[in-house]
Amino acid sequence: MKHFRLVSALFLFLSAMSFTSCDEDGDLIVPPVRHVSGAEFARLVDGKSWKYVESHELNGDGTMRKDGYFEDLIGIGPEQYSFSGDSVTTYMYLDAYPLKCHKVEKYTFQEGTNVIKAGQDDVFTVVSVSEDRLCILADKGSAADGKRMYVYSVYRAMAAGERPSLKELYPVNLNTIDEDYPLLPEQEDLTEADFTALAVGRTWRCAEAHGLFVTGRYDKADFFATDTWMNPIDYEITADSVYEVTRLGGRPEPVRTGYAYTFNANGRYVETQGGTTFSILRLAGDEMHLIQQRYNTAGGSSARLYCVYRQAGLDE
To answer: What is the pTM of this model?
Structure first.
């Protein structure tokens, strides 16, 4: 079987299963690309969103497999697209986080090859396009044997009432993810001697709290600014105890409870006999960054928080 290359001279797929013929083995035959101009493509797709219908992997010999490409795959899903002017919005699922998100990019249409590019990257090759149907070919990376995988996908134009659902289904904006959901600081080395010298004998006040978002990221929004069953906890750390000082709304005095604790240098975390555990990401000067798990003993719910603590007096 010849290695399939993503160029317009090769045969591709038909725009619908019902119009696709089969070879002797039952695989679907691949017809050629229907070339269009950039102006014609823009006229047909501008202002529209395109909903995924089906897809099939190329065999590499002018045929494609009958079974759907995504049917048995875990942790991956089809993209959806919207076009507006010279921009394309891709709606996708990223298994690395995992995350349902969207990204807006400027695109160009290469006449003669029907290739859609965003910057230096190929988004897909247009096989055929009409007022209500878009058929494309996309590179899905390398298979276990090192050969490239190409997948043919069929899309239909979404009705006006369907379009708003895309942002709801893929809410995170990858264009602003670093601003909306910053990266957590990397966990630094911390010995028991460091912990004793920098944390013990001090009072630590919760200055910032953010809900963890996905792996390695946190929500920039102030966690305690929302309606939550939790309250900020400050810590007084002595040589043998951690005192949890909870500031409760409407009460003149905070609630103070002390527990014996251990510091685990390998994991760089503190664990108290009261069940509180927090991992220290960074401890330097008068600032401590940590991850803590909070539990609602009444309702059984929990939350993981990224918090910044600063050395301060509790009466401040």
So the answer is: 0.78
